[in-house]
Amino acid sequence: MEHSPASVPAALPYYVAFSQLLGLTVVAVTGAWLGLYRGGIAWESSLQFNVHPLCMVIGMIFLQGDALLVYRVFRREAKRTTKILHGLLHVFAFIIALVGLVAVFDYHKKKGYADLYSLHSWCGILVFVLYFVQWLVGFSFFLFPGASFSLRSRYRPQHIFFGATIFLFSVGTALLGLKEALLFKLGSKYSTFEPEGVLANVLGLLLVCFGVVVLYILAQADWKRPSQAEEQALSMDFKTLTEGDSPSPQ
Amino acid sequence: MEHSPASVPAALPYYVAFSQLLGLTVVAVTGAWLGLYRGGIAWESSLQFNVHPLCMVIGMIFLQGDALLVYRVFRREAKRTTKILHGLLHVFAFIIALVGLVAVFDYHKKKGYADLYSLHSWCGILVFVLYFVQWLVGFSFFLFPGASFSLRSRYRPQHIFFGATIFLFSVGTALLGLKEALLFKLGSKYSTFEPEGVLANVLGLLLVCFGVVVLYILAQADWKRPSQAEEQALSMDFKTLTEGDSPSPQ
Predict the structure, then answer these.
(1) Cβ of A178 and B219 within 8 Å?
(2) CA distance A23 to A206
(3) Could A119 and B204 be called an inter-chain contact, meaning their C-beta atoms sit closer than 8 Å?
(4) Cys bridge to B93: A179, B31, B59, B174, which one at CB 3.0-4.6 A?
(5) What is the residue range of B186's domain?
(6) Cα–Cα distance between A64 and A135 in angstroms, integer?
(7) Tell me: the pLDDT tens digits for A49-101?
(8) Could you tell me the CA-to-CA distances from B80 to B76, B159, B164 in Å, in that order?
């Protein structure tokens, strides 16, 4: 289905609203889990650990997911404004996640626990570094004024693919962390359907649902942000330049 | 980049070869882990549990991933042959995964363990049911002769999206299972970098890499199977019918 640049695909707002409802539910259920079964959150006590899951879920799941949706939601604003919002949301996500990482490393240090031995931690460090690299490369291609139009066009599909992949990898890493937190505390009680275990399983499924809905919105070809008049003109200029042809309507 | 129907994109064979190398490595490392640290595999003993991870990795990861790649690899064969191969690979994957599921339920029953309490098991049952439903719906739309061309065209993007999503969800579920198996057995020894823990973490990263490479191959728009002469003709007939226009070269 084709849409004029001014129109918004009919179903898109409902899917975006649903994604936000799911994302906020994920954050709320994470808070409820930590509040009800883990004693809440504080920096200067053994509750410092709990800063980690909350910050990672807000930063690496909810805000990262929302940053990916910016180009589907802001369809008529100037491209540069939308880009800056996309970049800024990722900066907020990154800073919040960094606080979450500092919390867990500091907690481990105070308790004398080993760092970076588990699959969750290996995946976590890897995805966090990839997220940072993706941001830096994205910034230098799309916001820093140096990169040419053709370079941007060639890098764009890679940026989109790796952006979605890093987001999904973040969701997977969160599931691993949740599972680790449950097994460490509940142990064999996990199998007796303890309320904490059931709530955390539900949280895991909600995380998966948020990931799938964000991916679904990104994957719909006709929900993509339409290119605007100034971009079309730029694209035509570029085409003209590279093809050595005079600009004429085809 | 455009390709004529006869040509194969230059980089595609290397990516496919790499995916196969990764997939086989994942199966081999799973086998090595079970052989070296879990006493190997048998049906009639407590080794029955080990049938579960091996079958799930072969079925729900390796074969499912390869079934998704069929349309990128077989580019010149008749569409129907390729479809049948795609459907058959999924049948093999399903049967092998079913053996893996029977193994773990039977093992639990013999040992008196509870079923379906963990996040891994919830995700596993969900993804297995979704896989079965996706196969049934795919079969009735694309192989069963009833569905019209327009119905197939409308369902195709959904089938592709949910196929890729179910595959990625399977990878995530495998990671959860791996983590569960490690924490149940190693407990606090996991943090002392036990060789089994390190090998299993490497296996986890290999699973992620296989998932990413398969997704990357699927996501490249110009690596898609070109539509063949007979499909183009059918598509034109359909276009003609729906637009009420006479078939003429444009």
Answers:
(1) no
(2) 8
(3) yes
(4) B59
(5) 12-128+166-243
(6) 11
(7) 999 999 999 999 999 999 999 999 999 999 999 999 999 999 999 999 999 99
(8) 11, 17, 21
